[in-house]
Specification:
Blueprint: E1 8-15, H1 16-28, E2 34-37, E3 46-53, H2 58-67, E4 72-74
Antiparallel strand pairs: 1-3, 1-4, 2-3
Amino acid sequence: MKIEQASVFKKIRVRKEDSAFVYFILESYEGIASYSTLPHQPGDLHRDLELRIPPDFLEETQALLRRLGDMVYELENA
């Protein structure tokens, strides 16, 4: 029986105008991480996402977030 490690959770913030692109990039890296858009208010200029990252893909996900540059701001870890 294989015991799986718990996922790593990260919260990130993206500008509203960049959100569709960031969603597309995360989905194109199938399996690297899943995400949920956190609740927001009408008129907010950003979207907060919670990433759920398998431990084996943590380094790759962090590298991807760095490559996205100033489109992504990391918030406190969940």
